[in-house]
What we know:
The protein has a single domain, classed as Rossmann fold. The protein is an alpha/beta fold. The protein is built from eleven helices and ten strands. The longest helix is centred in the N-terminal third of the chain and has 15 residues, at 5-19. The chain starts with a helix and ends in a 5-residue tail after the last helix. Strand 9 (235-240) and strand 10 form a beta hairpin.
Amino acid sequence: MGRGPLEMKDMRMESRVDTAVNKIEARKVQVYYGDNHAIKDVDVMIPDKSVTAFIGPSGCGKSTFLRCLNRMNDTIAACRVEGLIQLDGEDIYDRRVDPVQLRAKVGMVFQKPNPFPKSIYDNVAYGPRIHGLTRNKAELDEVVESCLRKAALWNEVKDRLAAPGTGLSGGQQQRLCIARAIATSPEVLLMDEPCSALDPIATAQVEELIDELRSQFSVVIVTHSMQQAARVSQQTAFFHLGHLVEFGETGQIFTNPKDPRTESYITGRIG
């Protein structure tokens, strides 16, 4: 039996309430690579259970800022991060925060698929094993199957879990990396141009997957494709020369931007 109009409206209201909860809050964030001031005074609130896209020309700072959200920039000696970034109200740069534990909560998928040189099974099982998230093989089997299903890959690999992950196609490898990222039960999923190395069919599969994942995670995606941002995100942030120029609801950013620099980028005059 179909839903009545009232029930439909209630569902939309529920989804609005969900997205009103901010998962990540950043205030006055500065990033320096040596003397180069790469990110300048960025303030942003990223909602939970939603997809937020970062767009902007190459070198504008969008990937640098994304990597601040799980402290990946800690691995670069010359990089210095200032300001406040909170996950659920807690400062992620507090000295008491273990970056390894943080990255279990804030997973990441990179531009180029990078499966470990291990079996398909072990790629997904790796995180739960090192973080001690399962008590026995049966529980681990469940986690692996569940994550491969969520990544829309289970039916393609269930009969060859012992085969190397590197033997999969590019699109399958990227979905394996997504399964690996969600295996530690993160709350946030960061994606740095996850489709730029994929063909159009694999890209469409990953985009569909991103849309499904937002019911469980806060997803933040860096993309060079404005069309992709328009298709998959609910909020969009436009970066230019290290500044967050404009942040808002995706439809508004693309159809009625407030800042002339945003409009210039969207219409192809800059970038």
